Amino acid sequence: MSGSQCARLGGPLVRQLLDSVDSVLFDCDGVIWRGDQAIPGAARVISLLKQRGKKVFFVTNNSTKTRKMYADKLSSLGFDAAEDEVFGTAFCCAAYLRSECGLRGKVYLVGSDAMRQELEAVGIQAVGVGPDPVSGKQLDWASVPLDPEVQAVVVGFDEHFSYMKLNRAMQYLTQKDCLFVGTNRDTRLPLEGGKAVPGTGCLLQAVETAAQRQAQTVGKPSRFMFECVAQRFGLRPERCLMVGDRLDTDILLGSACGLKTLLTLTGVSTAAEAAAHRDSSSAERRAMVPDYYVESIADLLPALQGEDDPSL
To answer: For binding substrate, which residues are annotated in this chain's numbering (predicted)?
Structure first.
């Protein structure tokens, strides 16, 4: 169905696409909600997909909430969602360290309390959460006390990010056996009214620059994000649809994992940007081209409600 890339999805094509998949993975911010307000029609789309027997998952790069916190937010906005359907980078990072790395020691965490909770849920103790003010002089900073049980540095979104945290992360990472993991590389967090704030990617790049090392990231577009869902629910990539608002994370993840992809225009990326990628000679850019796009996921409602086919 992806022979015509970047096609506007509508009419009978919507039903054909939905009939070709068993599972739908949704990004959250910019797709089913913006800030603390649900996208109109989004909750109804989720409900109808489930009524039609589709598995639905919520896959987000945001590391500031636990699965339960996300399930609670979904519920408060009127979505039919269970905790085990939510896959945020806080949860997936903990899963990566435990299952892929076999980590048994502590981590130095540049991140949120939600990340600490998810790490501790799999038996990994985190140190470093909260403010870390500068004290002493430069020579003291270079000899800052380090926990000998720390085996990894993990970087997520941290509202308390500081020079001392950057320094402490760098000192740990001078140890060659210390693992280095980041949640995601999103550099900007879009807000209402066209505003934005720096994202986790800015913090991660600062640590990478100081440590002169590159982190392994687990969030979109890393394949691990999809594998984290697929391994738990036995998903077949060719029977999955990835719905997102960002070409460089959501759509790129879908392309990398062999999923069908749908871009919504209620968030970050635009149809013009997708078309420019499609017309590029760069393979890297073409990997960010969605199979289809819609103005909003509410555009799926007519097909789900049978309004596109009078015989239903």
So the answer is: 220
